[in-house]
Amino acid sequence: MExxxxxxxxxxxxxxxxxxxxxxxxxxHSVAVAVGPELRVFDLKAGCAxxxxxxxxxxxxxxxxxxISFSAxxxxxxxxxxxxxxxxxxxxxxxxxxxxxxxxxxxxxxxSNDGLYVTFADKFGVVWLVTVGEHGGEQVSVDNKPVSILGxxxxxxxxxxxxxxxxxxxxxxxxxxIRVTLFPxxxxxxxxxxxxxxxGHTDFVSCIAFTCNSEGRxxxxxxxxxxxxxxxxxxxxxxxxxxxxxxxxGELLEPNETDDSNLAIADICPTNDGSLVxxxxxxxxxxxxxxxxxxxxxxxxxxxxxxxxNYIPTSLASSFSSELLWTVMGASNMPNQAASQLLTLLRIxxxxxxxxxSTSDHGPAILEDSEVPHGEKLLLALQxxxxxxxxEEVLASVLAALKVSMHKMLVKKxxxxxxxxxxxxxxxDKKIKN
Length: 434
What we know:
Helix content is 15%, strand content 39%. It has helices at residues 2-12, 246-250, 375-383, 388-410, 417-433, and strands at residues 18-19, 21-24, 30-35, 38-43, 48-49, 53-54, 65-70, 76-81, 85-90, 95-101, 106-111, 117-122, 126-131, 147-151, 157-162, 168-173, 177-182, 194-199, 205-212, 218-224, 228-233, 238-244, 265-270, 276-281, 286-293, 298-306, 315-317, 325-332, 344-349. The two termini are 34 Å apart.
């Protein structure tokens, strides 16, 4: 019966639910939203939507984009997803300069701090690397094809980030682990030196982010399916503090919404100075703010920013030079969802900075549509529509799915011995045909 239920979920597409994503340029030049195969970019300096171009002759995204990322300088941007494509864009012109084809679907992507390499993780937990810049004399692989540099042993990688100094690459997975690996000077030969494992989550790790103090010392933040946000000394693999969000959110939700499986951390986003951390939760219509005292190595609850009842953020982003926290709600791969229904909603929180610590409990307010930078022009470009009735209809189904989506995506499925053998034979048959 259990196998039948799992297979039914797979057929229905519930397990393939793909949340909308948002990313902000480090210097605040642009903001990008991904929903389904669509990548929408708005140039905040020019005040207009960006027309993407592809000069490398590669295919366009044809399935859900699962990961997007700006480089540390903002010169490059990468997008990747279920179509097994990784596309690298130059942000001065928004031209695609490289399209890489993965053997399997891609779950995470990151760009090295020097802009020389793009790393991406496939659904089997293998991290691949490809050269995109001048390689400084290192031998490039034949045809510059991706090379595998590390693996999580068949566990889906849910997040991948380079440390602020570029020395380490952190990877998180659905088996509760965070691995911190020394990023070598010649990574095409593999990244074999593990710096540490950050162990402590009791359910899948859904997101990770680095944060720095004023002296330049960096720490790692993580969120997971166990409803916790954790602060780590990632160099030594030491857990410094844990914040349980269940108690804070539970009193704001209906009794039937407080099940642990509904309170997974969806995303985390620290301020540039590391003093604040914004947290999005799978079932919660708002954002929770925590103070982050990197001197005392402590996380503390600050306040809840409630949003309208039908708005649950699926992704968060902020830039170094801006005081705005960008949030987006949306999804693709919903049952019976047409391409014309790939709509999102944006909500922007101002004053996302250290000064917020001294504001009243009533702030900060969420920007009204008329207060959003570039107003309706930006909202139309990134949301896909300004029709309130149309958005409400499309996003109603997204709202229902959001409350269970993350566990359906990341909790391991249990198969009978017979079903496992069938799946194994299917995979082997595909290999023989290829």
